[in-house]
Amino acid sequence: MDDELSPEEALAVAAATRRTAAVPRVPGWFPVYAGGTFALAMAAIGVSDLAGRRSAAAVLGIAGLVLLVAHLGMYAEIVRRWRRGGLVPLTDICRRRTRRRVSQWLVFVGCALGFGFFAAGSLGWGTISFGLILGLETWYRISGSVRPR
Question: Secondary structure of 47-94 in the HEC alphabet?
Fold first, then answer.
């Protein structure tokens, strides 16, 4: 301890450093929002593809893009909130091994199912299945990092 730093100041500096280094937690509403907006966005885009060239298809496509922008914009807001002293702490959302494995399998199944539909020539169903499964995976993965009440 430095001669110029009192014990109280040293404890305050240590507490501030600990708060800065703490792993950030997400609010309770965020997993539902993140998974829901992604799933709804991809489902709306897929349904707009299935609907063909109607005005409803254009409305669904635009709604899907707006939901996708809202989904990505909330990640930017969360990172802005996490920023402490110019740093964004690195966090591992999947802390538990089983949660990480389930999450990886859901990503694999979503990509495989979506690619299968894409290869079969059904872009709409591929987008819908990919979006719903990855929306579920997003909710599941992020819900493990929710701030305790």
Answer: HHHHHCCCHHHHHHHHHHHHHHHHHHHHHHHHHHHHCECCECCCCCCC
pLDDT in tens, the chain (149 residues): 556 878 888 888 888 777 766 666 777 888 899 999 999 999 999 999 888 878 888 899 899 999 999 999 988 887 777 766 666 655 656 567 777 788 889 889 999 999 999 899 888 999 999 999 999 998 888 887 776 66
Rounded to whole angstroms, the Cα distance separating 65 from 128 reads: 14
Could you give the 3-state DSSP secondary structure of residue 95?
A: coil
Instruction: Tell me phi and psi for residue 21, to 5 degrees.
Output: -85, -10
Sorted by where each begins, the domain ranges of the chain are: 27-81+95-143
Q: 3-state DSSP call for residue 146?
A: strand
Half-sphere exposure of 125 (CA within 13 A, CB side): 9
